[in-house]
Amino acid sequence: MIVLHTTAVPEHIRGALTRWLIEPTPGMYIGTLSARVRDSLWALVGESLPTEGAAVLIYPDANEQGFTLRTAGERRRTPIDFDGITLIAFRPEEYQQTANPS
């Protein structure tokens, strides 16, 4: 099962996503796909994001957390790998300024 959340994607991408996934709320898609279809849809979303658009894909994986998280576009929250665990940094540019004062 995958969860894909999008913000400000073109209508034709939303249509392509609803061929494979259900859309229980606007911009959120859920379904069960093969890895090949999942990766093809993710490539389609990533290639057609406008400058204000963003997307997050979460799917099961064989790791400590049990899932993998992919992002595309600009967001205030950024996934960061911390010794094999994905954590979310909120406003990472502010963290960098406090961690490395100049």
Notes on the structure:
With 102 residues, the chain is α+β, with helices and mostly antiparallel strands. Helix content is 30%, strand content 39%. β2 and β3 form a beta hairpin. It is built from three helices and seven strands; from the N terminus they run βαββαββββα. The longest helix is centred in the middle third of the chain and has 13 residues. The protein starts with a strand and ends with a helix. The chain has a five-stranded antiparallel β-sheet, with helices on one face. Strands 6-7 form a two-stranded antiparallel sheet.
Topology:
Layout: E1 2-7, H1 11-20, E2 22-25, E3 28-31, H2 35-47, E4 54-60, E5 67-73, E6 77-82, E7 85-90, H3 92-99
The string of secondary-structure elements, in order, is EHEEHEEEEH
Largest sheet: 5 strands, antiparallel
Structural class: alpha+beta
Number of strands: 7
Short descriptors:
102 residues, alpha+beta, two-stranded antiparallel sheet, 3 helices, globular
Q: What would a concise description of this structure say?
A:
The chain is of the alpha+beta class.
